[in-house]
Design brief:
It is built from 49 helices and 21 strands. The chain has 1134 residues and is of the alpha+beta class. Among the domains are: 266 residues, no CATH class; 138 residues; 77 residues, no CATH class; 91 residues, Serine Threonine Protein Phosphatase 5, Tetratricopeptide repeat (Alpha Horseshoe); 98 residues, Alpha Horseshoe (Serine Threonine Protein Phosphatase 5, Tetratricopeptide repeat). A four-stranded antiparallel beta sheet has the order 4-3-7-10. Strands 12-13-14-15 form a four-stranded antiparallel beta sheet. Helix 23 packs across helix 24. It starts with a helix and ends with a helix.
Length: 1134
């Protein structure tokens, strides 16, 4: 086009005498050929033509004849025609992308920094329609978003076409050029262009008429009149060329079908394109464009239409008309005056400019609404999150902590809902965006599943689902619907807006399918993670270069406690060592992780772990923590087996099978490493009091300890117990220390000198300093002043060390060969004696006897070689135990009971003795020692009776309850039927003890070795109040004793008149018979002073006509015994 302008500018400079030569060279040779070319302009106009008027404008004074012909062949031509023009191997997508305005399954359009590029395949771009709707429930206006298909189905948009486009697969592929790329001019300008084109083309023809027919003398060619064939051929050629070019454009235009959609409700259309998108060799950046019209809003949907495929007559006719038209016009122009050629050239040139001007108004780069955040979005592919913020006009969005839900409230649905409209609307909008770009909803466009946010959301959803399946498999009843709450705060970007107070949002899971697996909405999690991550990235300038750390625990307060450091090293620590960070780097009310500043982490007071995780992973882990906190409220006890296992480089690790299962769910679904899983899971379990009890007295630990001892690895056994002592707290710490002290005592009594020396060295370590404080100092943990050792723990450690020191001193004095310890023990201030702190009233001799018994037990090695004699029922053993309990020498109690358990293989009654003494002294501490060591609480003593039987016989209600609370069987053992606790309490007349046993489920009708029930024994012992208690509790009244008597038959005497009446009132069979067929009435006849009994039986309805095995009635027996009072009572009048 610039070349043409150059040549035209030369016209005025040409001399008159050179005119003919110039026009002959330029006009007659060059100008007609220009019509053949103009490829770019032609393709551009054809690819944007959608109406018949566009075709007319294209055909008037046309340009690009050759391109038009080739374009028709490329779009609709046969394979032979395509081969003729060198396009035999060309796919349809390539031609469509160049020449048609439509999109299809193989072609699409993308924004390219302000322009629009047609590409092949299925790029990632989504077209979103937002329209106003009215809530039918509240009547309030709200904005809904969806695809064009959604808008058509919701009647927010309409299409006047006979065929609805809502079912077209191409409907989800945006038409960018027709609706955003080109700002179409008003129809007036197209009409003007068509009129002007017609005038120019007609003007050129009319000018030719003037040169040929009106002024032929002035427009001669080579001093002769123009040839007679020139004008007819020019006229015919121009007409055929117009028709051919029109039908070329028509065929091209009708090769795509346009649907015109109109908005019925106020609407906007958004086009969202993710960044860093590679299509071929091109990279497309993020782009957000919006289109809205204040009045009428129309959208053009153009799709491929193959109506001209195989219509060869129309195609060949069009091609022939175009080619012949050009040839005829060319020949005709060659025969006409040069000025006619220039007139035709000017007409073509002007129409080319007009066609170009019709579509020169295009979209500008400034229309990208995401240009300011393009770099930030590209890092995490967070275009959807940025778009959601833009739609809802939100400045920031944060997750916040919520008040704890009490365990008594079964579900979050029972908690009051705190409304946060903006946050809720933002999450719902982002969820809908996820739905629109997910696999299930996108029919044509490429899915967006490679986004980091979507991937981590899927990992989180799978982790939560598998965790729910796992916990349900443990037998925990979680119902069919489960919800967990998340708290959010949100602030609008509108001027004058304030931060909304934190509100709640519930995320639900449903148990469905034949396998009753738990399922949740992944897109909902994606929305929450994406929005939160986007807000965090926007608020942190250096988030790309900043490393992230997570605090250990669920709050700043917990992260600053010594106990947190202990359970971290016990359950969590694998390879990454924790460090203390300042509290101002994190806000635990919003998240449990923070960003490390450029200059590194200074020392502080919060225990934290550095991590290589990305920020979206940390956000997902925080959400998992909130979920786990909710679901753990439904778990009463975690269960599983606990142990200490070996780690890398000979390290030790706390282990629980149930925790390992939770960690496996976490790791298998790629939510983080094993250490990440433990950082999330362990603090929650501890917060919910579900963290397993892992101390040195656990069964697996004891077994591991004994295995090491059996292999002669005493030092490893000590290291195992020391590891637990250093990392335990509370009762676990105390029990572990007691176990370590007991192991020291065992080592000191070992036959091997090496082991005895190792035992002494370990004892000295314990006497020298607090084992846990020593560990913390070795780890270089700087604790704040309020975290130093409490006075109670100082006193506890002082008491324990004195008891351990006294034990070691006794061993050094009473065990041969152990005196070498005495200097060392003296230097550590080990006491040679323990005072009687309790100040009991027991006589001094009994106290001394108890102390000597304690010394004997603590220093005995074995029974065979020392002559140590104990039966398990010695009184001094009781005094020994009582002295330790009354003086609160818990370490000695622990050592003593462990020694009894050790020797129970030879003296089984020691176990029962331990339980009995613990119950006597109401010592829960002693009882728990025996239980945790695996001692059977119902084990028998020498007489075969359990401890509960002994307590019942004594009527010790507190002892009975203590044993029952810890699992004692209220019915005793069937193997020792003579040791029934209920019968013992009844026989002793202990009504309170009887009530306690009944409350704990004792069987009222259980039989002893004599075949008698508790009711029998209560009657035999004349305990009327207990008889009444048993009967009111439902004791059976028809049990038959060894003599064939029921309780009523046995009670049919004057002595037991009150019991007899009580039995009758509680439904006892008044006509029951013994082995010889005698009833209570018959038995009363033979007894003296039984008249009250007879009257009572008769008053209660006893049958006087019943006969025994000999056929005698009660009256017959009275006559035979000459019992006149009875005869008078039983006579005919009765």
């Amino acid at each position: 086009m610039l070349s043409i302008l150059f040549f035209i500018s030369l016209f005025p400079l040409v001399k008159a005498d050179d005119w003919e030569d110039f026009t002959n060279n330029l006009a007659t040779d060059l100008a007609p050929l220009i019509t053949l070319f103009g490829e770019r302009l032609t393709k551009q106009f054809l690819s944007e033509s959608t109406r018949t008027l566009d075709n007319v404008i294209f055909a008037l004074s046309p340009l690009g004849v050759l391109t038009s012909v080739v374009s028709v062949i490329r779009i609709c031509g046969s394979s032979s025609l395509r081969a003729f023009v060198g396009r035999a191997q060309e796919g349809p997508a390539e031609a469509e992308s160049e020449l048609l305005p439509c999109v299809s399954e193989s072609t699409a359009e993308l924004f390219n920094d302000g322009g629009i590029t047609r590409v092949f395949g299925r790029p990632k771009i989504v077209e979103i329609v937002a329209w106003e709707d009215v809530d039918l429930n509240t009547g309030e206006k709200k904005t809904k978003i969806g695809t064009l298909k959604d808008a058509l189905e919701e009647k927010a948009w309409s299409c006047k076409s006979k065929v609805s486009p809502s079912e077209l697969p191409e409907l989800d592929v945006p038409n960018l050029s027709l609706n955003k790329g080109i700002k179409r001019r008003d129809q007036f300008w197209f009409n003007c262009a068509a009129i002007l084109g017609g005038v120019l083309q007609s003007g050129a023809i009319m000018y030719a008429v003037l040169t040929v027919f009106v002024y032929p003398q002035h427009f001669q060619k080579d001093d002769k009149a123009v040839a007679s064939y020139a004008f007819p051929l020019y006229l015919i050629g121009s007409t055929l060329l117009f028709l051919g070019m029109f039908f070329c454009a028509f065929i091209m235009e009708r090769s795509s079908k346009e649907f015109y959609l109109e908005a019925e409700k106020p609407s906007k259309i958004y086009w969202l394109q993710p960044g860093n998108q590679h299509v071929g060799d091109q990279v497309f950046n993020a782009f957000l464009a919006v289109s809205e019209e204040p009045d009428s809003f129309r959208y053009i949907k153009s799709i491929r239409d193959r109506r001209f495929d195989r219509k060869y007559l129309e195609i060949y006719s069009t091609l022939a008309s175009t080619i012949l038209g050009f040839i005829f016009q060319f020949i005709g122009l060659r025969g006409l005056h040069a000025s006619v050629i220039l007139a035709q050239l000017g007409s073509t040139f002007l129409m080319a400019i007009i066609r170009t001007c019709l579509r020169t108004e295009r979209m500008t780069p400034d229309e990208n609404k995401m240009k300011d955040d393009r770099e930030l979005m590209a890092h995490k592919q967070q275009e959807l999150d940025c778009f959601a913020f833009y739609l809802e006009k939100v400045e920031y969005f944060n997750m916040v902590s919520l008040p704890e839900r009490p365990a008594c409230i079964p579900s979050p649905r029972s908690m009051p809902h705190i409304e946060a409209p903006l946050a809720r609307q933002l999450i719902q909008t982002r969820t809908q965006l996820a739905n629109l770009t997910s696999t299930s909803d996108q029919s044509i466009n490429a899915t967006w599943n490679d986004m980091p946010i979507r991937q981590i959301a899927q990992n989180l959803a799978q982790t939560i689902e598998s965790t729910m399946d796992l916990i349900s498999g443990w037998g925990v009843d979680l119902g069919k619907i489960f919800e967990f709450r998340l708290g959010f705060e949100c602030r609008s970007s509108s001027p004058g807006s304030v931060t909304q107070s934190p509100g709640t949002y519930s995320v639900g899971l449903v148990r469905c399918g034949d396998a009753l697996r738990w399922k949740m909405q992944v897109n909902e999690l994606e929305a929450i993670i994406g929005l939160w991550t986007w807000s965090l990235c926007k608020s942190c300038d250096d988030f790309r270069s900043s490393r992230i750390f997570r605090i250990v625990g669920l709050s700043e307060e917990e992260a600053s406690k010594e106990e947190t450091y202990l359970y971290f090293h016990k359950w969590i620590f694998r390879q990454t060592e924790a460090r203390l960070v300042p509290s101002d780097l994190i806000d635990d009310s919003r998240r449990l992780f923070g960003f490390e500043p450029k200059e590194g982490l200074p020392l502080g007071d919060l225990l934290a772990i550095r991590t290589e995780n990305e920020v979206e992973t940390m956000a997902a882990q925080d959400i998992f923590i909130q979920f786990l906190k909710e679901v753990c409220l439904n778990i009463k006890e975690l269960g599983g087996e606990v142990d200490v296992v070996s780690g890398i480089q000979n390290s030790l690790l706390g282990s629980c099978t149930r925790i390992d299962e939770l960690v496996s769910c976490f790791e298998a679904n790629s939510l983080g490493s094993r250490e990440d899983a433990l950082l999330c899971i362990v603090p929650v379990l501890r917060n919910r009091n579900l963290l397993p009890d892992l101390a040195a007295d656990c069964a697996k630990v004891r077994a591991r300890r004994e295995q090491l001892i059996s292999k002669g690895k005493w030092r490893n056994a000590f290291e195992l117990l020391r590891w637990l002592c250093q990392r335990s707290e509370g009762s676990q710490f105390e029990r572990s220390v007691y176990e370590l002290g007991s192991l020291c005592r065992r080592a000191l009594l070992n036959n091997s000198e090496t082991i005895r020396k190792e035992g002494f060295a370990q004892t000295c370590k314990l006497l020298n300093s607090d084992i846990r404080e020593e560990f913390l100092q070795a780890q270089k943990v700087s604790l704040s002043s309020d975290l130093t050792m409490s006075q109670d723990r100082i006193e506890w450690w002082r008491s324990f060390s004195s008891q351990l020191g006294w034990t070691a001193w006794i061993i050094s004095t009473k065990v041969p060969g152990m005196s070498f310890m005495q200097p060392g023990l003296k230097s550590l201030n080990a006491p040679e004696s323990l005072s009687d702190l309790a100040g009991t009233n027991r006589d001094l001799e009994a106290t001394q006897t108890g102390i000597r018994a304690m010394q004997d037990w603590l220093t005995v090695r074995d029974l065979e070689n020392t002559g140590f004699k104990r039966s398990g029922e010695d009184e001094d053993d009781q005094w020994c135990f009582d002295w330790a309990v009354e003086n609160k020498y818990y370490g000695l109690i622990y050592f003593l009971l462990l020694k009894w358990l050790e020797m129970s293989e030879h003296i089984p009654a020691l176990v029962t003795l331990g339980y009995s003494l613990a119950a006597n002294k109401h010592s829960q501490f002693a009882l728990q020692i025996l239980l945790r060591q695996g001692a059977e609480i119902d084990s028998p003593d020498i007489q075969g009776c359990p401890a509960l039987f002994n307590q019942a016989a004594l009527g010790n209600v507190e002892g009975i309850v203590l044993l029952l609370d810890n699992g004692a069987d209220p019915n005793g053992s069937d193997k020792a039927s003579h040791g029934r606790p209920l019968i013992a309490a009844v026989y002793g007349g202990h009504i309170k003890a009887t009530e306690s046993l009944l409350q704990y489920g004792a069987n009222l009708n259980v039989l002893d070795h004599n075949g008698m029930t508790a009711l029998w024994w209560a009657m035999a012992s004349d305990h009327f109040d207990i008889v009444e208690l048993l009967l009111s509790s439902g004791a059976g009244t028809e049990s038959v004793g060894s003599d064939g008597l029921t309780p009523l038959l046995w009670a049919a005497t004057e002595k037991n008149l009150a019991v007899l009446e009580l039995l009758i009132n509680h439904g006892a069979n008044i006509n029951a018979q013994n082995n010889s067929g005698k009833t209570a009435l018959m038995r009363a006849v033979y007894r003296e002073h039984s008249v009250p009994v007879l009257r009572l039986l008769l008053d209660k309805g006893a049958d006087v006509h019943m006969k025994d095995d000999r056929g005698l009635t009660a009256l017959d027996m009275a006559n035979k015994a000459n019992f006149y009072e009875a005869i008078a009572i039983l006579g005919p009048s009765s």
